[in-house]
Design brief:
By secondary structure, this protein is α/β, with parallel strands linked by helices. It is built from 10 helices and 15 strands. It has helices spanning 2-13, 59-72, 95-108, 132-145, 155-158, 166-180, 208-212, 276-290, 299-310, 315-327; strands spanning 37-39, 43-44, 48-53, 75-76, 79-80, 87-91, 118-122, 149-153, 188-194, 215-221, 228-236, 245-254, 264-271, 333-336, 339-342. α2 crosses α3 and α4 (132-145) packs parallel to α6. The longest helix has 15 residues, at 166-180. The radius of gyration is 23 Å and the shape is elongated.
């Protein structure tokens, strides 16, 4: 047990740019377990995960949700982050938009202030891996702050070479690894990347990226239900692929930061806990109510209208779905005499 602890401590203190670790003979057993997970079976310490998808598929929403869960020490994709996590989020473009989403994500879970454990890096016009001074500054910041997670958003805005060239792709991913490995604690990296026009063909650019990263996540819009993001583990090295996870886009009112500013509505990604079949039924029932053409429907009328769309529902199931739709702001509930109307 003591040998394993010493091996882990050596791994944490290792200068990844200039040293190697050596195990001899039966001492090789001490190397087992050094590949640590910052999020069990999802994120591997010292390694890069690629998160890709079509433009506007929700990649940044998912990345921010993951980063907030890391700082908060809460669940993400069925696994729980350790407490006292710290994140450095590198926004290569539109860092103002990233800041709004980060603030909205924390407001949604009850934080009035963004914790100091969340660090946002941004610049104008973009942050580039070709800027040697930037890389030096990032490495120094990582050494000082020792994050448990770094997010690089997005890959294409941070590189300055040929994304279709395999050697350049290797060099880019290795640079990201060098940065996260400066942390004094186990740290994982997520690189947000685009797919090509055909999502089924995977990530854009050289296929060498696939070999260079440890895990590949894909974010895609769910076709059957509006405002749903499905996260799947497309590829993994030594990790059993996790079951897909679904997120819903939720609109949060962002209070003005100054007296002259207006309240902003910002969309964030929240994990969908309910069964997807019920979510789909709720969407259909809301559509039935919206398309009824009347000021309001009683629960009996909703049941009659919805039967041809979702089938016969029990009274308790229908009431639960209607309550969920009211709480989400999809429909309103009002009284007319003794009757409750949904519109």
């Amino acid at each position: 047990m003591g040998n394993k602890r010493n091996a882990v401590e050596e791994w944490l203190q290792e200068d990844f740019d200039h040293k190697v670790s050596v195990w001899k003979g039966d001492g090789i057993r001490d190397a087992i377990g050094i590949k640590r997970h910052t999020l069990k079976d999802r994120l591997v310490a010292g390694e890069i995960t690629a998160l890709y998808g079509l433009p506007k598929a929700g990649k940044t929403h998912v990345a921010i949700a993951c980063a907030v869960a890391c700082v908060n020490g809460t669940e993400f994709w069925g696994a729980t982050f350790p407490q006292n996590g710290k994140v450095i989020y590198v926004s290569a473009e539109r860092h103002e938009q990233a800041a709004q989403r980060i603030r909205a994500q924390f407001l949604n879970i009850g934080y009035e202030k963004i914790p100091d454990g969340f660090i946002l890096i941004g610049s104008i016009p973009t942050l580039s891996l070709g800027d040697s001074r930037l890389i030096k500054d990032l490495k120094q910041l990582v050494e000082e702050e020792s994050p448990t997670l770094m997010v690089f958003d997005t890959y294409v805005r941070m590189i300055c070479n040929d994304e279709d060239n395999s050697r350049d792709a290797d060099e880019n991913i290795n640079t990201f690894k060098e940065i996260i490995r400066r942390s004094k604690v186990p740290c994982s990296g997520i690189v947000v990347h685009h797919s090509g026009k055909d999502l089924s063909k995977g990530m854009r650019g050289s296929s060498a990226i696939l070999a260079a990263v440890t895990t590949v996540w894909k974010a895609a819009q769910k076709r059957s239900v509006a405002n749903r993001i499905v996260l799947t583990m497309e590829d993994s090295n030594d990790i059993e692929a996790a079951a897909p996870c679904t997120f819903a886009l939720k609109v949060v009112d962002l209070p003005p930061s100054s007296p002259s500013a207006d309240v902003m509505q910002i969309a964030i990604a929240v994990s969908v806990d309910a069964d997807e079949s019920e979510i789909e039924r709720k969407e259909k029932i809301v559509r039935v109510i919206n398309e009824s053409g009347v000021a309001g429907l009683t629960i009996e009328q909703v049941s009659a209208h919805a039967e041809g769309v979702v089938g016969k529902l029990s009274d308790s199931t229908l009431r639960r779905i209607l309550k969920s739709a009211v709480e989400a702001g999809d429909i309103t509930e009002s009284k007319s005499g003794k009757r409750i109307l949904y519109s």
